[in-house]
Amino acid sequence: MKSALNALERLREGNRRFVASVNDADTVINTRGRRQLVDGQEPFAVVLGCSDSRAPVEIVFDQGLGDLFVIRVAGNIVQPSQIGSVEFAAERFGTRLVVVLGHTRCGAVQATLEELQRPTEKQSRNLRSIVDRIRPSVEELIRADAGVDSAALARDAVRANVRVSVNGLRHGSEILEQLIQDDGLLIVGAEYSLETGVVDFFDGVPT
Question: In 97-193, where does DSSP find H-type helix?
Answer without folding.
Answer: 107-117, 125-144, 150-171, 174-182
